[in-house]
Amino acid sequence: MTEEARRVVTVGVLALQGAFNEHLQLLRRAAISLPTDASEQTDWRFPEVRTEDELEQCDALILPGGESTTMSLVAGRSGMLEPLRDFVKVARKPVWGTCAGLILLAESANRTKQGGQELIGGLDVRVNRNHFGRQVESFEADLDLPFLATPGDSNIAGIDLRPFHSVFIRAPVVEKILQPSQGIQEEEASIPETIVAPTRTARDKDMEGIIGKGVEVMAKLPGRAAALTNKEITAHSTGDEGDIIAVRQGNVFATSFHPELTGDDRIHVWWLQQVLKALK
Questions:
Q1: Could you tell me the end-to-end alpha-carbon distance of the chain, in angstroms, rounded to an integer?
Q2: What pLDDT score does 124 carry?
Q3: CB–CB of 184/196 below 8 Å?
């Protein structure tokens, strides 16, 4: 394919705070690991995003792990909160949030004082912040992630089906899947120490229909003790029991763990494929 026919796709990483550099490194690796047809037809750009102008250049965005309260405060002071809400909820461009990014993308978050932070929204879920406890209670676990090998989603020759080694640092979990709402999650707003995201309407009417189908659970974590003591146990093998740690609603995807800290680019490869599908 000629250079003129190659498509430029810009995937930004919000760089206000947190592990943005680690995401950038894995994105560059993932772009090389994509199937040949995708890599040959696409020129990838992976910029750091700190301003509205930089955000406007992006076709997709990652919200990295870090401190969600700090990210929210910096975004508010730098005038980025509203542009981020427009990007996620109005334009409905592909977005992936990890750990703190999951909190920011939730429509509701508990264990949060009013005025402590604001949410972007985009996922009809309630998250439980710091579900697993303090920094010293962070842990690692192997996850079975069937979506990495879903037909039509991953066409990489010789798919690697090994469990995905994941890192949980003061991680949130999805405590409840909420019914899609055209306005704010009013019932959630009435719960003490719970904040909700402001409402926005998707620009694309077709996307509204996809959002209305609700949240898809992509992965769960088995009982923490089992995950830590028995290396043969993964979330998939324990059945439906366990905490929800990965979800998707339309173009918005989020994980409560940190794939960017593992050196394993498989989720980044899968997500870039989702970006290409969304941009068709």
A1: 18
A2: 95
A3: yes
